[in-house]
Structure formats: structure tokens, C-alpha cells
Design a protein that fits this description.
Radius of gyration: 29 Å
Shape: elongated
Structural class: alpha/beta
Oligomer: single chain
Number of domains: 4
Largest sheet: 5 strands, parallel
Distance between the termini: 49 Å
Strand content: 5-15%
CATH architecture of the largest domain: 3-Layer(aba) Sandwich
Number of strands: 14
CATH superfamily of the largest domain: P-loop containing nucleotide triphosphate hydrolases
Strand order of the largest sheet: 2-1-3-4-5
CATH topology of the largest domain: Rossmann fold
Length: 471
């Protein structure tokens, strides 16, 4: 949707002229001749965040309105206008929070420059707020696994460049988090990060969202609007589920990537754009190319830097750190004391295959926190919210061994014997896993488990990784 601008001026000629200018430039204009009409517009347009405000008005003047509006709506970006402006007035306007100050007679170029700067600043503030709000989620790109460390190293190498990146991985692995990390670590971090899910919109709307359109370009195009490429100018454009894009739109996207120029639907004037594109998909694009569902030339254009996000089942040693992170994040969001989670519960989580990946883990822990009492989350709490039969293959033999924490000085119990059946190797692996779980529970720490098992610490870590046990 195009940016909306509230214009307040008691001179009808100026008001109408500004309205026409804004509509022509792709904005939606709401016109008011005084503070009373402006208040009514603001009341029915809670998302409106841009305003052109004259200082000399009947009733409350512009400076009074500015002070009152910003007290109630800090996100409002106001550009003040005056035919009798002075340095003192401009300083006072700035002190009260005005984004810019324009002297009349107005220049169309100066008005649009001020509004575009205000719009850009508004977008940056929105983005920063969203990043702060999702800071906990973004930090889920952590872990002790080799797979996540390798991914972070590749992100750090690719981020400072302008290269196009193709992020692949299953749903729920955190592909958008990778895109945001690429943006945050790049020289474009101060500019906009714009995201578009190509699978969430019908084909006829994807092109309009990407490239923009002119007024009257199609039924319902009541005003011109910028597309995502123009919005992301000098920033980053994240195209999620690129594999679902139609061949027709793929062809247009390829031209923009090649030429760096976008033309709005129904328009003829090309606009130069400087955009870093990060695309993502859960599909196998190489196979889609073979099947004729995805353009080969576009695939190579996107796949300059490939980044594969591993599924959680391939880095189960990260389940523990992720669980602790999510529990801390949920406690903060809910205003509660952080919940603890015992080793048996972590071991049970590490035996799940996680088809929904990190997203599934976060949702499960949120459900457990809300629906179970107590300060410590137990294996029983976790098991009650896992799907029936959701233990990873090869771990079912040891899954029944539930060990209670052992108090200092209490004699250690022997680990449960593995269930009969399966090959000798399966049974030996199950017994080894059960012994490891028991030692961790009995000892309460890796150092104590080393003593109980008579292993070198490095050897213990190797076995814990082998059985995907948290440590």
C-alpha cells in the first residue's frame, strides 16, 4: 500500500496543489484545512505516520498541533511549512520534534525530497524496532554444532559484499534470519530490509508488489505505488519462496537483476535501483530447472553465493542451547521468572526428529511453559507435548530410560538395560547412550560424568555428539 500523508493548510489552492503532487508521486493524500479536520483524519487513520503541516492555521497553530500530536503519536513524522519562517521558528520546530521545515513558496522537488527522507527515516525506525523485537529470534542462529558454525562463517564472508545470495533449507530452519544477518552485517545495514513472500500472493499481485504500478494500470489501481525494488533502494530485498514464482515473473525479475532498472506496471519510465537481493526457497531449484518450472538463467543469477541452512535433526547438539535461549526469551515476553529444564528433558528433546525444525522447537517450548506448572521442566512435561512415537530412529531402545536427578552422596543407580531386539550394534549403541545419559544425570556435570565413566573429556564429547546428546 502507498504511503499516506496528512496535508494541513488553510489555503485551498496550496492544499489542492499538494494533494495532486502527492498522488502523482505515488502517495495517498489526506487533506485538512485546520487542526480539527486533521484530528479527525488521524483518529480514523491510526497507521498514518507522515504529515505536511502549515504553521499559520485558524484555531490551533501548527507548532501547537505538532507538540500535541507527537506527545500522542511519537511515530508521526511531521514536515512543517511556513510563509513567514524564521531561524528561530525553525529551531523551535526542530526542538518540538519536526522532521523538517520548509519555507513558502514551496518547491515541488523540495517537498518531495523532505517527504521521501521522512518516509525513509520512518522505514528505518520500523526496521530497527522489528529487529529489537525479534532480537531473541535472530539469535537462534547460534549453536555449538559444526554445521551452524560453518553457516555463520559463510554469512560473515558474504555479508560485506553486494553479491546475490540463495538461501536454501527446509521450512522452519530460519532462512529469513540468515537474510537479516546478511543485511545487518553489510554496509547496507542503515537502509531498509524489505521482505516479500512470493508464495503468499497470487501471481497477478506479485508483479505489482515487486515492480510497482502506475495509476490506472489495472482495475483497482487507484493510485501509483512503488514496488519492493524501489522501497529497498540502497538496501536489501529478501524474496522468500522464490521457487513458487511464475515463469512470467521470473523473466521480469531476471531483467531487473541484469540491468538494475525497474519499470512500474502500466508505466514507461525506467527507474534505476541499487538493491542487494537475497532469495530463499525450500524447493530443490536444480530439479525445478530440469522440470522446466524454474528458469536456468535466473537460477545461476541468484545462486552466486549459496547458503544451505541445516535442518535441526542434523544438528541435534544445538537443541540444548536453543531450548535455554527460547526459555529465557519466553520468560522475558511473559514477564515471568525463567524456567529451568533438566537433563532428561533435554535428552528427550534431542531424540525428536524435529520435522518442523527450530520453529517447532520454539512452539513446543512455549506450549510447555504455558501449560505446565513448576520451576523445572521435566522429561514428562516434554513428552506430554511431543507427538506420539516422535522419538528419533535408533534412539527408541534407550528412550524408556528416565533418570531422576541424584542428590550429592546418593549412590548411583545402574543405567537401564537396553530393550531386546535389533542388531548387536543397535543394542550396544542403545546401551552406550543409556550409560551416557545416566552419567550426566548422576554426575550433574560433564566433569563428574568423565569421572564416573572413566573417559577422557574429549572422548566423552565425541560420544555425546555421536548420540546427539546435549552437553
Amino acid at each position: 500500500m502507498a504511503d499516506a500523508v496528512l496535508v494541513v493548510d488553510d489555503e485551498p489552492r496550496i492544499l489542492e496543489s499538494l494533494g495532486r503532487l502527492l498522488e502523482r508521486e505515488g502517495f495517498r493524500a489526506h487533506l485538512a484545512k485546520d487542526g480539527r479536520e486533521a484530528d479527525a483524519i488521524l483518529a480514523r487513520e491510526p497507521e498514518l505516520e507522515l504529515a505536511l503541516l502549515d504553521v499559520a492555521l485558524p484555531g490551533e497553530d501548527g507548532l501547537t498541533l505538532l507538540k500535541r500530536w507527537l506527545a500522542a503519536r511519537p511515530a508521526l513524522h511531521v514536515v512543517l511549512m511556513s510563509g513567514h519562517g524564521t531561524i528561530e521558528m525553525a529551531v523551535e520546530a526542530t526542538r518540538l520534534g519536526a522532521f523538517d521545515f520548509l519555507e513558502k513558496p514551496l518547491s515541488s522537488d523540495r517537498v518531495m525530497l523532505a517527504l521521501r527522507n521522512a518516509s525513509r527515516q520512518r522505514n528505518l525506525e520500523r526496521e530497527n524496532a522489528a529487529l529489537r523485537e525479534s532480537a531473541g529470534l535472530a539469535s537462534t542462529l547460534v549453536g555449538r554444532s559444526q554445521a551452524i558454525h560453518a553457516l555463520l562463517e559463510r554469512i560473515a564472508l558474504a555479508a560485506p559484499t553486494a553479491a546475490t545470495v540463495l538461501v536454501t533449507g527446509e521450512s522452519g530452519t530460519g532462512k529469513e534470519l540468515v537474510a537479516r544477518a546478511l543485511h545487518d552485517l553489510s554496509p547496507r545495514r542503515a537502509q531498509a530490509f524489505i521482505a516479500l513472500n512470493c508464495a503468499a500472493l497470487p501471481e497477478e499481485l506479485v508483479e505489482s508488489e515487486l515492480f510497482g504500478h502506475e495509476k490506472g494500470a489495472f482495475t483497482g489501481a487507484l493510485a501509483a505505488r512503488r514496488g519492493k525494488f524501489e522501497e529497498a533502494h540502497r538496501g536489501t530485498l529478501f524474496l522468500d519462496e522464490i521457487g513458487d514464482m511464475s515463469l512470467r515473473t521470473q523473466a521480469k525479475l531476471l531483467r531487473v537483476l541484469q540491468d538494475g532498472v525497474v519499470t512500474r506496471i502500466g508505466g514507461s519510465a525506467p527507474t534505476k535501483v541499487d538493491v542487494r537481493v537475497v532469495a530463499a526457497t525450500h524447493r530443490k531449484l536444480e530439479q525445478a530447472v530440469k522440470d522446466g518450472a524454474f528458469r536456468e538463467d535466473l537460477f545461476y543469477r541468484l545462486n552466486v553465493v549459496p547458503l544451505a541452512v541445516p535442518p535441526l535433526r542434523d544438528r541435534l547438539e544445538d537443541v540444548g542451547p536453543l531450548a535455554e535461549h527460547f526459555l529465557a526469551l519466553l520468560a522475558k515476553q511473559m514477564g515471568r521468572k525463567p524456567r529451568k529444564i533438566d537433563r532428561a528433558a533435554l535428552a528427550r528433546l534431542a531424540r525428536h526428529t524435529w520435522p518442523g525444525n527450530v520453529r517447532e522447537l520454539k512452539n513446543l517450548l512455549e506450549r510447555v511453559v504455558i501449560l505446565t506448572p513448576g520451576e523445572t521442566i521435566t522429561e514428562g512435561d516434554v513428552a506430554a507435548h511431543l507427538p506420539v512415537g516422535a522419538i528419533a530412529a535408533g534412539a527408541s531402545a534407550a528412550a524408556g530410560a528416565v533418570h531422576a536427578p541424584i542428590a550429592p552422596g546418593e549412590p548411583a543407580l545402574a543405567p537401564a538395560a537396553p530393550a531386546p531386539g535389533g542388531t548387536l550394534k543397535d543394542q550396544l549403541d542403545a546401551a552406550e547412550r543409556a550409560a551416557l545419559e545416566h552419567a550426566l544425570e548422576a554426575g550433574g556435570s560433564v566433569a563428574r560424568a568423565v569421572e564416573l565413566l572413566g573417559l577422557e573429556r574429549s572422548h566423552l564429547y565425541k560420544k555425546l555428539r555421536k548420540h546427539h546428546l546435549p552437553y
